[in-house]
Specification:
The protein is an alpha/beta fold. It is built from 11 helices and 19 strands.
Length: about 450
């Protein structure tokens, strides 16, 4: 999914005298006053010229404004938090006359809130200047690079363009186009390959191994019957059995898993409006999103149908059959880019679909300090025969971890600085320890 391309006409413009123009006006007025004081009429001509030139410059800039459109290309189109992206500009002159040389800056949501400045060369009527078409000017490439440190959906733009009259006495300023969305997805940490097998149950584990190998031998087969199509013959199974074997028509099911994330602000020790980048609650939630992203992508690529449950209003996309392609990973991560904390309300899990609520298989939850009501709702999603894993971000409330353990969950204490891969690896150890204790 690429950011929206915007190429609207100039929406906002302004005209003002430059420092040189203001100097001309001041000297002109002073010359006029001096002409009356000392009685030298020739100074009046100089004063009139000095005043009229800036006014003429303002008139020229005002009556011949630039008419431009702009589009941006992000490379890559979807960027991971902490990774760089290059933004290339394409500026088109839609006016019927050539545009003068100008300077540009692009609005960005981070300090110093301006990218650039750069130089726009003179563009004939109908011409386009971009990074690949005449975009190398004396100031370099028509574009810039960003390295967003936090996930989110950010507005880039509009493009601010400034130009002057031929004498540099008046300046015009305009905002070209509107903003385009830059999607910054959370970091996906590679997780170990063995943990999902340890926590998914024996039947699901065998199926995942077959899916990972991609071998057709795991398909159900039967003996050949008259009328069966030859394209359904399973030659490897036939060689092993000494007779023709064909693939069954039965639909093969895939193991399911559920991810639960607390998206209510009261579960992170603060109020949404009070969260700042350095606040503990903010870093807790960002770690939770990173963990959900990593676990979701890992399970999906291992063959799971991954359903997502939220304690607040639904924001996150599910991950379906891995055979449907990797596009679902992108949709899932894009939804995480825009996931925000919800205000606490009377309804928990509002908007979770019936498919997610009724899914089977292991369940993974990421929480910090949920309310008692939220905690009851989460723990109730683990059925007696299912594996539940809770990643509890240490919040100074030991009752949260104890509640999960009492409900039969595997509890993994973490902090907002924990490595998600290490937290995931500890699941297998605790699962094996619990299995040994039961034996």
């Amino acid at each position: 999914m690429a950011p929206r391309e915007t190429s609207g006409r100039d929406r906002r413009s302004s005209t003002r005298p430059t420092v040189r123009g203001v100097g001309f006006l001041v000297v002109g007025v002073a010359s006029g006053v001096l002409a009356y004081v000392i009685g030298r009429s020739e100074l009046l001509y100089a004063a009139g010229l000095l005043v009229l030139l800036p006014l003429a410059g303002l008139l020229v800039v005002r009556l011949r404004p630039l008419r431009l459109t702009v589009s941006r290309t992000f490379s890559p189109t979807v960027v991971t938090a902490g990774a760089p992206t290059v933004i290339e500009l394409a500026v088109h002159n839609v006016s019927t006359f050539a545009s003068p040389a100008a300077t540009w800056t692009d609005r960005i949501p981070w300090a110093p809130h301006r990218a650039g400045p750069g130089v726009l060369p003179v563009m004939p009527a109908g011409a386009t200047v971009s990074a690949t078409r005449g975009g190398r000017t004396s100031s370099g490439r028509l574009g810039y690079s960003l390295r967003p440190s936090l996930r989110g959906v950010y507005d880039i733009g509009p493009l601010d363009v400034s130009y002057t009259d031929p004498f540099g006495l008046a300046a015009g300023h305009l905002a070209v186009g509107t903003s385009q969305s830059l999607y910054v997805i959370p970091v996906v940490v590679p997780l170990g390959e063995s943990v999902s097998l340890a926590v998914s149950g024996e039947g699901a584990a065998r199926l995942i191994q077959h899916l990972a190998v991609g071998n057709d031998d795991d398909l159900m087969t039967r003996e050949y019957r008259t009328g069966d199509a030859l394209r359904r013959v399973h030659w490897r199974a036939s060689a092993r059995h000494g007779e023709l074997m064909v693939r069954q028509e039965e639909q093969r099911s895939y193991p399911e898993a559920r991810l639960i994330i607390d998206t209510r602000s009261d579960g992170y020790g603060g109020v949404i409006s009070a969260f700042e980048f350095s606040d503990t609650g903010f870093t807790w939630f960002e770690w939770a999103v990173t963990m959900i992203a990593s676990v979701g992508v890992h399970l999906h690529r291992s063959g799971f149908l991954v359903q997502v449950l939220e304690t607040g209003h639904r924001q996150i996309a599910a991950l379906g059959d891995a055979n449907q392609g990797s596009g679902q990973d992108i949709e899932f991560l894009l939804s995480l880019a825009g996931t925000r904390l919800n205000e606490p309300g009377p309804v928990i899990g509002d908007g979770n679909d019936e498919r997610a609520l009724g899914a089977l298989g292991p369940v993974f939850a990421v929480v910090a300090d949920p309310s008692a009501e939220t905690l009851r709702w989460i723990t109730a999603h683990r059925r007696p025969y299912e594996t539940g894993v809770a990643f509890v971000i240490e919040s100074g409330n030991p009752a949260v971890a104890e509640t999960f353990r009492s409900a039969g969950w595997i509890c993994i204490p973490v902090t907002d600085r924990s490595d998600p891969a290490e937290a995931w690896a500890s699941v297998a150890r605790l699962a094996a320890q619990g299995l040994g204790d039961r034996r």
